[in-house]
Amino acid sequence: MSPEGKKLFNIIILGVSFMFIFTAFQSCGNIAQTVITNLNNTDFHGSGYTSMSIIYGVLSASNLISPSLVAIVGPQLSMVVSGVFYSLYIAVFIQPATWAFYTASVLIGIAAAVLWTAQGNCLTENSDENTIGRNSGIFWALLQFSLIFGNLYIYFAWQGKTHISESDRRTVFIALTVISLVGTVLFFLIRRQEDTKAPGDDDSTNEILGESSSARNKMMRAVAAFKKSITLSFTKEMLLLSVTTAYTGLVLTFFSGVYGTCIGAVNRFGSEEKSLIGLSGIFIGVGEILGGGIFGLLSKKNGSGRNPVVMLGILVHFIAFYLIFFNMPNDAPIAPMEGTDQIAYMIPSKEVAMLCSFLLGLGDSCFNTQLLSILGFLYSEDSAPAFAIFKFVQSICAAVAYFYSNYFVLQWQLLIMVLVGFFGTITFFTVEWGAAAALAARGSDYSSI
């Protein structure tokens, strides 16, 4: 296989592995609060929102050390070990216990930081400035198939159910645990690049360290990666992109946890309210896949760079937020187990709810494919620290959003996303104009995003 063929093979395996793991995890997150609401009459006392807040809070803190861990262990083994912890978290729901639930939330937060740092490193190692847009799109589209498969099962399995039984819960989570383990095993198929740099290395460091794999040299690599993360955090470009990244964290919380809970709480949807959670996840996935395909795989045909894609993303999201505001009861995110009988400014419509799910997914893919692309372009030599900072900011904002989702009604959550999204779009434009100027100075073609 040619070097380029090997790199494309690695990107595809990376995407398929993440697809399996997040088929399990995102389906779990989408139904966690609904399942837990049904459990809170038992000895189990926990909150899906609180769990997700812990996960993303720990994830954000762990991103400070994740480049060092990836530098020591290597990206492939880092992803394998992290995948195991994802499977353990999902398995907790088979026989839930409050202490195990929150302990697993802490552990998966650490694992997620390592997983996404290693993913960014692997994506960049197998790309160059001419293929980073294409490879980001391939990875994103494959990853987002995860929203289709798990939610499709939930839609059919829970159709007509207003209460989730113990048998229903165990069947779903045993299946999701196995799916997550399959994705973990697939990481072993990724082929290592012969000229791969360790995360945090530069050319001078490679000359000093050579090919030695001693513990001392690995520690030097870890320290170098940590220092590089701190340095990159305060660059102008990274600070500006952090606003955009913060917006993706808020949106991630909304579509992966809050919006499904809102749909499941609307009593006017009748016996379909629980199965509609799964259908909503499917439409989100369709939007994500469509966006990844159009703006990643077909990026060569776009001669105007990343900004138009991000502009489309924010417009699509604003339309979705407007429709959700009119369609969903204001108390839906914090409704009790009995659900809510309130209405907003229109009778709740299943069709409008599913359209909004699709728009949420489409807009999210616009932002994430372009963020992956611009980070891979700007920080091709420091991919692990750069992607660690990206996940740090995204996760801490997701953690904050999950925390306030316990208390804020729908209108305030939508308003926060509108404000942060507006400013995040402006800051992304600023960085992209700088990237375009850098390409022009090097005599490169701006049509490769």
Automatic annotation (TrEMBL):
It is found in: Membrane. It holds the Pfam family UNC-93. It is a multi-pass membrane protein. Its main location: membrane. It comes from the Eukaryota. Keywords: Glycoprotein, Membrane, Transmembrane, Transmembrane helix. InterPro entries: Ion_channel_UNC-93, MFS_trans_sf, UNC-93-like_regulator. The chain crosses the membrane at residues 7-26, 46-65, 100-118, 138-158, 170-190, 238-256, 276-297, 309-328, 386-404, 410-431. One of its GO terms (cellular component) is membrane. Belongs to the unc-93 family. This is UNC93-like protein MFSD11. It comes from Leptocoma aspasia. The lineage of its organism: Eukaryota, Metazoa, Chordata, Craniata, Vertebrata.
